[in-house]
């Protein structure tokens, strides 16, 4: 009984998931997520909003709606269909506007970033980007108490990771301007972050801003002198800027 979940509301469900042979691969007595945020497998994202509180449903999910073509090591084989038994325990308004302790912010941010990594590995870069942005939203939300020095450092590191991941997803989506903005945001937090420097240099080179790209890549090389990728990028710039033989 009760209304079905509305967009933006948070749900808590009890989940059991099994392979075709009956082997149990999912058991969560209280999984909490917001449908549409990409925090759960697609079978739950799509199925739970059709349920009412107290209802028990069974969802037979083909592999694109479970763990995709690669599966999930070590217990879900590639292209495995799954049978989910789902009990909808509770529906409530989403938690994001509410102040949370720094530790809860870190856990929520990490959960959403890991979900983004899952989408990225499957090649669903738009879904990955959505999860990374939601992770940043969680990390930047209001906190119930000021973070301590260690928590502040962890929040900073998680923000940089999420921004780098956003840049990677934007590059896959062929959105160079947005990818460059994500790199620059990461570098404002951590000016010597090697991954952000490398990607910024690559993006500047693609835009024909070779002098700027060379400066950024040389700084990246100072931080990681053994990087073959950075050496290759600089070599390409040198070849492009050098006049042809005999000119």
TrEMBL record:
<keyword id="KW-0697">Rotamase</keyword>
<dbReference type="InterPro" id="IPR001179">
    <property type="entry name" value="PPIase_FKBP_dom"/>
</dbReference>
<dbReference type="Pfam" id="PF13432">
    <property type="entry name" value="TPR_16"/>
</dbReference>
<keyword id="KW-0677">Repeat</keyword>
<dbReference type="GO" id="GO:0016020">
    <property type="term" value="C:membrane"/>
</dbReference>
<dbReference type="GO" id="GO:0005829">
    <property type="term" value="C:cytosol"/>
</dbReference>
<feature type="domain" description="PPIase FKBP-type">
    <location>
        <begin position="8"/>
        <end position="92"/>
    </location>
</feature>
<dbReference type="InterPro" id="IPR019734">
    <property type="entry name" value="TPR_rpt"/>
</dbReference>
<dbReference type="GO" id="GO:0005740">
    <property type="term" value="C:mitochondrial envelope"/>
</dbReference>
<dbReference type="InterPro" id="IPR011990">
    <property type="entry name" value="TPR-like_helical_dom_sf"/>
</dbReference>
<keyword id="KW-0802">TPR repeat</keyword>
<dbReference type="Pfam" id="PF00254">
    <property type="entry name" value="FKBP_C"/>
</dbReference>
<dbReference type="GO" id="GO:0044183">
    <property type="term" value="F:protein folding chaperone"/>
</dbReference>
<protein>
    <recommendedName>
        <fullName>peptidylprolyl isomerase</fullName>
        <ecNumber>5.2.1.8</ecNumber>
    </recommendedName>
</protein>
<feature type="repeat" description="TPR">
    <location>
        <begin position="194"/>
        <end position="227"/>
    </location>
</feature>
<dbReference type="GO" id="GO:0043066">
    <property type="term" value="P:negative regulation of apoptotic process"/>
</dbReference>
<dbReference type="GO" id="GO:0012505">
    <property type="term" value="C:endomembrane system"/>
</dbReference>
<dbReference type="InterPro" id="IPR050754">
    <property type="entry name" value="FKBP4/5/8-like"/>
</dbReference>
<dbReference type="InterPro" id="IPR046357">
    <property type="entry name" value="PPIase_dom_sf"/>
</dbReference>
<dbReference type="GO" id="GO:0003755">
    <property type="term" value="F:peptidyl-prolyl cis-trans isomerase activity"/>
</dbReference>
<keyword id="KW-0413">Isomerase</keyword>
């Amino acid at each position: 009984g009760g209304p079905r979940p509305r967009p933006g509301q948070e749900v808590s469900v009890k989940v059991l998931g099994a392979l075709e042979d009956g082997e149990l691969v999912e058991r969560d007595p209280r999984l909490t997520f917001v449908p549409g945020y990409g925090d759960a497998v697609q079978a739950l994202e799509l199925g739970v909003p059709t349920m009412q509180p107290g209802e028990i449903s069974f969802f037979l999910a083909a592999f694109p709606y479970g763990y995709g073509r690669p599966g999930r090591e070590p217990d879900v084989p590639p292209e495995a269909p799954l049978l989910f038994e789902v009990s909808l325990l509770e529906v409530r308004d989403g938690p994001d506007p509410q102040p949370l302790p720094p530790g809860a912010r870190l856990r929520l941010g990490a959960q959403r970033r890991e979900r983004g990594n899952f989408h990225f590995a499957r090649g669903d870069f738009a879904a990955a980007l959505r999860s990374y942005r939601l992770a940043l939203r969680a990390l930047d939300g209001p906190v119930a108490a000021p973070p301590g020095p260690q928590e502040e450092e962890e929040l900073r590191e998680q923000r940089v990771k999420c921004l780098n991941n956003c840049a990677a997803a934007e590059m896959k989506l062929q959105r160079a301007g947005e990818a460059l903005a994500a790199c620059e945001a990461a570098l404002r937090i951590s000016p010597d972050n090697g991954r952000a420097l490398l990607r910024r240099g690559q993006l500047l080179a693609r835009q024909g801003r070779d002098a700027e790209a060379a400066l950024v890549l040389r700084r990246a090389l100072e931080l990681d002198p053994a990087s073959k990728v950075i050496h290759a990028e600089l070599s390409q710039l040198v070849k492009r800027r050098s006049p042809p033989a005999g000119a």
